[in-house]
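Chain X:
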Amino acid sequence: AAEGKDEASAAENTPARVAQGKGGERSSILSSAGQFFFEYLVVVSLKKVSEGRYEPKISYQFPKRENLLKGQKEEEERLLKAIPLFCFPDGNNWAPVTEFPSETFSFVLTNVDGSRKIGYCRRLLPSGRGVRLPEVFCIISCLGCFGLFSKILDEVEKRRQISMAVIYPFMQGLRESPFPAPGKSVTIKSFIPESGTELIELTRPVDSHLEHVEFQALLQRLSPHLILHIFASAVLERRLIFLAEELSVLSQCIHAVAALLYPFTWAHTYIPVVPECLLDTVCCPTPFMVGIQMRHLEQVLEQPMEEALMVDLCQGKIIRAVGDEEEILPAKLQNEVLTSLNRHNSNNNVHSSEQVNALVSEAFVHFFVRLVGHYSSHIKWGRGGRGTFQERPFCKAVASKSCRRFLKKFVRTNMFSLFIEEAEKSRSPREGNG
């Protein structure tokens, strides 16, 4: 698996600059209306290398790119080499099967310039008789909108059961449609033999920072108490390792944890599902947020690791901790968040996933507002419109001792610095950088 390393290092997610995208612009994931829905659809199949060992390879790519400039060609080649690893992160031991539950997951690749691409994957067993191997349909897009792409993958899967040939006109129609603005829809006409022309409506959620999130995935697996321990570790930019067997569980839960930090952005290594050949990522001394399949647990525990928080998503428990997670957040604010999480968790409240997203997000945004909401009044504006953040008076302005103690650590984080850098640039007071 060693040759996978260099390819995957292109994908090794170090989005320190991602919050701003190129040269401080807002990232393309945020200002996306009117863009292409996707860059590529690739099909990744397993090719036999030796008895019982298979290697994931791209068996189809749409559209094929002609006339690329040299730099673009290199970038494309690197992207196309990394994709198979992330579509089959579980290693090379496979056997043909007659049944395989299809699963949906996603991964994130970071380009040299810090911009991000997302791979939305559906792993399924092609229709047929007898034993066969699963394949992955992967849509590569710059746009973060998980619900929308899951729906597109449903359509792809439906067509795959008829014939590969029915997939391409649908994807071509999608490529020619503009990506809708938040809250808006786009309708795509699609013809299927036997059933005629269908109209497929794709709608973007109103709240664009929740497009990539299913908080329900976290609440189903972890108690509100544990979610707060994880949040506390993430806020101080520590090392977090999540374990589960299913790729969909890992990718949903990790996207959800990263989204709890809104309006801040996780600015370090971020790999929702770590391919087997990259497991030594857990030896990094720098902060990371990674997902690892349960089958690799022994291997991970043997690695020489720095302190990290290890969360078992199957059993909803913490396997390893630093030990101070309980004390990180100011008690009063922690209890407020707990109260609202418990309220949404009680069974007599049946909420749609959008409602859960809004309620959970609100609880954590409220935490940040209570703690750092006064930041804009501590930016001193110079004549040329440049702002300078006054850190000491900002921390001193907080009355509660425990909040002040926490704040002194939080202002040292990369995510806070990135947030303030953005705020110093823009005179118009706006909430957050998301």
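Chain Y:
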Amino acid sequence: ETTCLSNNMENRYSKPDTEKMNQRDRPFMTIQRNDSSDNLVLPMKNEMRNTKYKPVDYQQLRVLTEAKKLASAAAELKIRKAMLTSKISKEQTLIKQHKQVWWQEYQRLNEVRCKMESEIKSLLNEENIGNECLCDLTNFEQELSEQWCTYLKNVINPIQQLRADLKYRQHHTLQHSHPHIECNSVKVLEEVDFVKKQLKTIFERLSLEQQRIENDLSDWSIKILDHSLEEKTNLLSELPIELESLECPYPDLKSSIHSEFCKFTQKYQKKLQDFDLQLEDIYRNCQLSEEDHWIYQAILDQYPGDLFGRRTLYLDMLQRYFPHKSRHDLIEHEKHCDQFRFAMEQRKILISNWNKNKKDLYTEGCADTY
């Protein structure tokens, strides 16, 4: 009995201890409960309505959306109208400024033309016996006058007569309808085609003559420019007559003056060669043709340097004359022209400084010799 009692006591106290130890070895677990989900699920299960949530009125939302769309479209239309009005106003302002510049340029050119014509007439009217140039100019003026009269007679007058005849026939046809109108229209079309062919032939001949004259003028201008550049270059290379004929009792002094002059010459020739290479490089990289460049320069000359907004105006006019050229291309050509003009000015200053230094060197050399 004592043995059984002791066993029972061991079993009673050992089993809870082992259970406690097992529970202590188990991992710690937490259980989270979502109160909000329960709060939402339970009313739905119980078919209860929550006052926080209202049914959506989709029809009202569609009406509000359409109203917002209409208001946005109206605002966009107002913005487009304002932009169009601003663009038209800006265009009108530019055209007005262009007209003012054109009118001033027309007056200036008209004054220059009248002055030149009066000078030429007074020069031609003077009695210069044996002056072949004036005789040639007089003959050329007479020849041009005869050619102009012939052109009016053979080209302009028939066109005006045909135009008046067509207007008369059109007016007569609209008022009176006759059965032979079809025959007359065929004859009129034949006459118009004949005149077109004649004019095409004449304009082709005039275009060829114009191209020939322009090529001759271009060749002469290149020759004159090359000749002037060659003369200026020769001025730097040749010795002055004063140094060659300088009488000096000391040969060493004269040779030193010559060597000093040669040093000056080499220095200025090197700089002049650099400027010429720079000008050739700028001319080679020019993107506009000669004719387009002439138009570009003529447009720039129309706008005086002291004009307010000059660059904006002449860039706008250039874009109108050259629609196939972008603004970037025109600005690049403007940079090339500025570089070319600056290089030419520097070249002129170089030659002017050379002449001044040459004169100073000669003056100092003569003072040293005496």
